[in-house]
Design a protein that fits this description.
The chain has twelve helices and seven strands. It is an alpha/beta fold. It has a domain of about 190 residues: Rossmann fold. α7 links the parallel β4 and β5. α2 packs parallel to α6, α8 packs across α12 and α10 packs across α12.
Length: about 280
């Protein structure tokens, strides 16, 4: 994964366009995690909640609906395209909240954060320890942290199965990535995360596993496989290794069909639910 400046370019490029255009379908895939993240907030009222890596705002809006009008909501993200969708969604729902584009560690947030939440936005810092030290400094005493991050790719069939299905189409296998490089699986190592957060100042750090299935979009095998070819690791291989998109989709469709059969197409997923106090 690129460094911070390159990430800013990356998330404001065609990748940001894709995630903004496909926000509804992507949020439908990831919907099971909204309640998981917000469960620790139930029964309490928080003055200021910040959503780290808020994307198109699904979690931010869910938090606003849970908390009510007395809570200030701030969504933080690098992608201008996704934040535009978030603002449109908030306006359509009649919800008042603030969306800030840029590096979350540099954002000026007032008042201090009473709850920091995130759905897969916590793994992209080039230097996570100083980043979380800065985030911790923005939080109120005893503020709550609740987020989810992916476990290792092999435990996430919905991503690993499409990738593995297209590997035979390559002249040579892709290089094995640095497991700690900023990216979707940078916090898959429980020991790493439970080392970083306490050193950054967080207390009572816990990581509970969640395992289940996610439903791919589309009522047909063609629709589901087409979507999985144009997001995630297969898309990267098409762009970086010149993988033929049609051959890739054929391989992905066969793999999904073998694993799922008829729609709805459900594949395994595994995440960590990370909680802590400031």
């Amino acid at each position: 994964m690129p460094d911070v400046q390159t990430q800013e370019d990356y998330w404001n490029s065609e990748t940001g366009d894709f995630w903004a255009e496909e926000a509804d379908r992507l949020d439908a895939i990831l919907a099971p995690f909204l309640d998981l993240i917000l469960a620790p907030l139930k029964g309490e009222t928080y003055g200021h909640i910040a959503d780290l890596g808020c994307g198109a705002g699904a979690l931010t809006l869910a938090a606003a609906q849970q908390q009510g009008a007395g809570t200030k909501l701030t969504g933080l993200d690098l992608s201008g395209q996704m934040l535009a969708v978030a603002e449109q969604r908030a306006a359509a729902a009649g919800l008042s909240m603030t969306f800030v584009q840029g590096d979350a560690t540099a954002a000026e947030l007032d008042p201090p954060i009473d709850a920091l939440i995130s759905r897969f936005g916590i793994m992209f810092f080039e230097e996570p320890l100083p980043a979380y030290q800065k985030l911790h400094a923005k939080m109120a005493p005893c503020g709550l942290f609740s987020a989810v991050c992916w476990q290792e790719m092999l435990k996430n069939q919905w991503l690993s199965l499409p990738l593995q299905s297209v590997l035979p189409l390559l002249d040579a296998p892709p290089e094995k990535p640095d497991p700690h490089a900023p990216g979707p699986f940078a916090f898959a190592d429980k020991a790493r995360v439970t080392g970083i957060l306490p050193e950054a100042g967080f207390k009572e750090v816990a990581m509970e596993p969640w395992e289940g299935t996610l439903t791919l979009p589309g009522d047909t095998l063609e629709a589901a496989s087409a979507f999985m070819v144009y997001m995630g690791p297969v898309k990267s291989l098409i762009r970086e290794r010149g993988l033929d998109p049609e051959k890739a989709q054929t391989a992905v469709a066969k793999a999904i069909d073998a694993a799922c059969g008829a729609a709805p197409f459900k594949l395994g997923a595994a995440v960590w639910h990370v909680t802590a106090n400031a």
